[in-house]
Structures are given as structure tokens and as C-alpha cells.
Design goal:
It holds the Pfam family Peptidase_M3_N. By secondary structure, the protein is mainly alpha-helical. It has 27 helices and 9 strands. Helix 8 (about 165-195) runs antiparallel to helix 11, helix 14 runs parallel beside helix 27 (about 585-605) and helix 15 packs across helix 20.
């Protein structure tokens, strides 16, 4: 049941920036002291033997186990997941700190190969579990409460039952997984190796994308054209990666008999296709009252006849481009978390003091931000590329929310801790919302309030509207690939078809924008993942509305939801709040919160 953790990100000690203050760096020694630590070798050796013993003891015998026997078997599997996860977390985090370092890349690759080889004999476990009779399992659950705890895990595995292949083919696919991973690595290394030149300065992708949020319009325009130029030069590589990974997925889906390309994602998210469809339809129907309306306001604020793509994330002219140093960012987020509930502040505190955050921007460090849960008996690590913008403060609040969630869910143990994607964004988006409200309370002027409101609306549009447009792009891409190889122009056309619809009539699209699908990692790393962001944002908006309506006792219910990890279905988790995601009105509740903020902005226009 071993799952590769989401790739998690190492760097040189102590990076201080004059404006940002002392930025924290990871201390990975809680995982292993170094790549040649004796404990790491000990764990790899243990893993090899544990996997072989497990196969020896259980292969072909799962149907003969009683309740206690099955419980013991699952616990052994859980321990294997724990050790494998610890090794992969260490290798992955080190690699992400410096993706351009050959030694780190090799170390990650070697660990991955070893673990794939060691865990190949375990493939039988899922297959045999899925052959057990439902009645026999039900009787065992009734007999052992400890075993019944694992029912949600077994249910999720057994959801794959209709799509399972022969034992031999499953082993073959498991071994071949390393090859699929290589395409992801090619994508990552290509992105990390891209070089952009704006106004005579050479920079990587993260810094170049960051210029799209500059106050100076000519700088934003230059960055957009430079991004288009470099993507254009590399477009054949990106098209090849997308063609190959979509084809690989299509072949596996076809052999498994999956009805749609999205089925596998919905299954792993533990969410019904109709719930995702309801979300998608609600958002697409709301484009005019959300993005179209907001960008029309923004066009006026910027004093433009038409907006260009490089204006989408532009700061407002009234915005003060002040830099928020690290200590201030920490204080804002900690205050917001503690004001909601002191327990939340206590959970967040060690991230800052114990080397669980890597904040600075460094050469070779992976772009973006994430929280990686590692394993339940260590702790999460948060990666940021902190540049001191107000948005970066929100990113800190977001990733810290993940971290807190992961700490709370850890008591569930390795197999039950990880939350399905649909609920995985809950604590992060909620943490952002708390931080936003705290900043809004502190706003001294109308201008400051307007800037904050506009920033939040933009983040929500980027999360809800843009991610659903991304989802539509992927749906179109995978459908089109089934008809044959796609040229870069084919993919460009699919991308543009969703952009105009979602952004609305305020925009004009420059030549070259059609290649901007190329840099989005989720399309390659986890197809159809993107709707989870919209799901999370919609869910949190609905949750926050409940908090505002009836704050009494909300905190305890909220902590219970986070502590549940992956042990409950979204229906069960939301019931205490009186919410139900399968009800179309649920999504409208979340979306009306966004349009309410836009109403407030329109009213400020007077």
C-alpha cells in the first residue's frame, strides 16, 4: 500500500536578505543526519527484508486470515509505508532544495529505484485484499474494533477492485512506474533549467513569473514576452512530455477499463464524479459574476481600454509595494491563528522555531511552495520561496495550514492520516481566510481595505475560476490525445479555448500566451488534481460562512474534522456543520461569498 509521497524540497545554511531579515532553513536531521547516515542504510536494509518477509508470510494466504491476523498484516504494511515514506521524504526534500545538484538528483533516483524494487513483492497485497468477500470482511470488522478502524483505507483500496488487472500485469505496471516518473523528472529539470533575460538580467522561472506582479507595467510586459519566448523555444519538449504522459495514462486506463480519464483521480480523492461535475458547472456558470465582473473593475482601476495577460496579476495603482519582512509575516499569521484558537497557535509555533520551514529563494531550489507531511512519527516540512510580498504572507498562512492539519491528523497513523485531496486544502485555505480577515481588521484606510479585498478576490479567482479552467483544459487535452498525437499548436489551441471563456471580455491575449500551459506542474505530476483547489476554496467559503453565522462551538468541530485525516468521507466530515457537498446549492454558498466581496468593491467605486 506504499504511496510515493507528494514530492517534497535543500540548500546552503543561513540565507539572510537585507530587507527580509533572517529566513529560516530546513533542518532535515529529524529524518536522517545525512545521505550516508548509518540509520538510513539500516532502514533501507530493514525495508528490503521486511518486504520480502511480508510477501513470504502473506502471499496467497490473505483469504485464510482471521480478524487478528488481518490486523497484524495491515500493521506490518503500515510500518513498511512509514519507513519507505521516511526515506523518500528525506531524498525528495534534499533534492527540492537544490534540483540542479547532480549528487542529490542521483541520490533521489537511487532511493526511488531501491524502494520500487523492494516493494514490488507487495503488489499481491492490494490484489488479494480486493478478492476478499465483503461479507467475510464485515464479519471481521464486527469482531475487531481495531481492524474496523482501517475500514476507510480498505474501502478506498477496494474502490479500485473493478479496475484491477491480473497479478502479473499489476506487478509489471508497478515496475514500469519508474519510467513514467522519468518523464516527470524531465519536466522538472527542464523547468528548473530554463533561463530568462529581462532588462539585461538573467533569472529563473520563479523570479520571472514574479515580475508579472510588478507595479511597473513595462516590466510586466517584458516578463510576459520573455516567458513566451522561452516557452516557445522549449515547446516541443513540453508537448512531448504531455503527449507521452497522457498516452501512458490512456493505455493504463484502457487496460483497467476506467470509464473516463478523470475516474482514477475521483477514486483516489474519494469523491463522486457528480459532486465534481456540480462544482464545475456552478463555477463555469458563475464566470460572469466572478471573474468577468472583477476584471472589468480592474481594467478601470488600471485605466486601460483592454487588459493584457500581463495585467491579470498586476498590483493596483493605489497599492503600496511595501516589503513584508519575515518576522512581520510570522507575527501576522501567528496572531491570526492564535486569535481563532490558541491551540492553533501552539501547533504552528514549532514550524518557525525548529527548522521545519525553508523560506528563501535560492539558485537551483524548486519553485513554488508546499507542505510535505513526511511520516506520522516525524513532522511536516514547509517550503516557500519568500520574497516579502503580501501574497507571500498568504502563502505562508496557506502552507502552515497544511502543516497544522498534517500534525493533527498524524495520530491516525500512516494509512489513515492522509486526507483525500478534496479535503486536503481545507486547513490551508481556512488559514489564509483567518489571516486575510485579521489583516482586513487592521486596515486603517479605505485604500488599504480596497487593496486587501481586491487581493483576496484575485486569489479566489485564481483558485476557483482559473483552476476549473485548468481542469477543463486537461479534460480537453486527454480527450484529444485519444484521437492521436497532439502538435504543440493543437495543445495551444485547447489552452486558448478555456482562457477567454474564464477570464472574460476585458482581456486581449498577446501572441505567445498560447504556450503558457507549458509550465504548470500539476498537469504532469498529478492529472486532474487542479479541481481540488476549487473544491477546497468553495468548501472553506461555505465553512467560513457557517463560522460567521454560528461561531459557538465551531473550533472544536473544526479540530475534530482536521484530526480525522482520511478516516472519514467528506459527507461525514461536513455533516456536523450542516453542509453537504453533493448539494448544488452548497457550491453556490461558497461562490456567493466571492461575489459578495466583489459587491463590496463595486460599492466602494461610489
Amino acid at each position: 500500500m506504499f504511496h510515493h509521497p507528494q514530492p517534497a524540497y535543500d540548500a546552503n545554511a543561513g540565507s539572510g536578505d537585507d530587507n527580509l531579515g533572517q529566513l529560516p532553513e530546513w533542518d532535515l536531521t529529524d529524518l536522517y543526519a545525512s545521505p550516508d547516515a548509518p540509520e538510513l542504510k539500516r532502514d533501507l536494509d530493514w525495508l528490503e527484508k521486511a518486504c520480502a518477509d511480508f510477501a513470504n508470510d502473506y502471499e496467497g494466504k490473505l483469504a485464510d486470515l482471521d480478524a487478528n491476523g488481518l490486523l497484524e498484516c495491515i500493521k506490518r504494511d503500515e510500518k513498511i509505508s512509514n519507513i519507505a515514506g521516511r526515506i523518500m521524504s528525506f531524498a525528495g526534500l534534499r533534492y527540492h532544495q537544490q534540483t540542479t545538484d547532480g549528487e542529490r538528483a542521483k541520490f533521489l533516483s537511487d532511493c526511488q529505484e531501491k524502494i520500487t524494487n523492494y516493494t514490488t513483492p507487495l503488489v499481491f497485497f492490494t490484489l488479494e485484499l480486493n478478492r476478499l468477500e465483503e461479507e467475510a470482511l464485515a464479519a471481521m470488522y464486527a469482531e475487531s474494533a481495531d481492524l474496523a478502524r482501517y475500514k476507510p483505507v480498505l474501502d478506498r483500496i477496494r474502490a479500485m477492485k473493478p479496475y484491477q488487472l491480473s497479478d502479473e500485469l499489476e506487478k509489471f505496471l508497478h515496475d514500469l512506474g519508474v519510467v513514467g516518473d522519468a518523464w516527470e523528472r524531465l519536466f522538472d529539470e527542464t523547468i528548473a533549467g530554463l533561463s530568462f533575460t529581462v532588462d539585461g538580467e538573467d533569472m529563473g522561472i520563479e523570479a520571472t513569473l514574479n515580475l508579472l506582479t510588478e507595479q511597473d507595467r513595462s516590466k510586466r510586459e517584458a516578463a510576459a514576452h520573455e516567458l513566451a519566448r522561452v516557452f516557445g523555444q522549449n515547446i516541443r519538449t513540453f508537448a512531448r512530455v504531455h503527449n507521452t504522459s497522457a498516452k501512458e495514462k490512456e493505455v493504463i486506463d484502457r487496460w483497467r477499463g476506467m470509464p473516463t480519464p478523470q475516474t482514477g483521480r475521483h477514486l483516489s480523492n474519494d469523491v463522486e464524479p457528480e459532486v465534481v461535475e456540480a462544482l464545475r458547472e456552478a463555477v463555469v456558470a458563475a464566470y460572469p459574476k466572478l471573474s468577468h465582473r472583477y476584471y472589468e473593475l480592474k481594467r478601470k482601476w488600471l485605466g486601460l481600454d483592454r487588459m493584457q495577460v500581463w495585467d491579470r496579476n498586476a498590483p493596483l495603482p493605489i497599492e503600496d509595494s511595501k516589503i513584508v519582512d519575515w518576522d512581520s509575516a510570522r507575527d501576522i499569521v501567528m496572531e491570526a491563528y492564535s486569535a481563532f484558537d490558541p491551540r492553533m497557535g501552539d501547533l504552528a509555533n514549532p514550524f518557525f522555531s525548529n527548522g521545519w520551514i525553508d523560506a528563501g529563494v535560492k539558485p537551483g531550489k524548486a519553485p513554488g511552495a508546499f507542505a510535505h507531511p513526511t511520516v506520522t512519527d516525524v513532522h511536516p516540512y514547509v517550503m516557500l520561496n519568500y520574497l516579502g510580498k503580501p501574497r507571500d504572507v498568504m502563502t505562508l498562512a496557506h502552507e502552515l495550514g497544511h502543516g497544522v492539519h498534517q500534525v493533527l491528523a498524524a495520530d491516525q497513523g500512516e494509512l489513515l492520516a492522509s486526507t483525500p485531496l478534496t479535503l486536503a486544502e481545507t486547513a490551508s485555505v481556512f488559514g489564509e481566510m483567518l489571516t486575510f480577515r485579521k489583516m482586513l481588521d487592521k486596515a486603517k484606510t479605505d485604500t488599504e481595505r480596497k487593496v486587501l479585498l481586491a487581493g483576496k478576490v484575485e486569489d479566489m479567482i485564481n483558485t476557483v475560476v482559473r483552476q476549473i479552467a485548468f481542469y477543463d483544459f486537461e479534460c480537453k487535452l486527454h480527450a484529444a490525445r485519444r484521437g492521436g498525437e497532439l502538435t504543440p499548436n493543437d495543445i495551444n489551441d485547447l489552452w486558448m479555448s478555456v482562457q477567454a471563456e474564464s477570464l472574460g471580455p476585458a482581456f486581449e491575449f498577446m501572441d505567445g500566451y498560447e504556450t503558457f500551459w507549458a509550465y504548470i506542474p500539476h498537469f504532469v505530476h498529478s492529472p486532474f488534481y487542479v479541481y481540488a483547489y476549487a473544491f477546497g476554496d468553495g468548501l472553506v467559503n461555505a465553512l467560513y460562512a457557517v463560522y460567521e453565522e454560528t461561531p459557538e462551538g465551531f473550533q472544536d468541530k473544526y479540530f475534530d474534522m482536521l484530526k480525522a485525516g482520511g478516516s472519514k468521507h467528506h459527507k461525514e466530515l461536513l455533516a456536523p456543520f450542516g453542509l453537504d457537498a453533493s448539494d448544488p446549492a452548497f457550491w453556490d454558498k461558497g461562490l456567493s461569498m466571492i461575489s459578495g466581496l466583489i459587491d463590496e468593491l463595486e460599492a466602494m467605486e461610489g
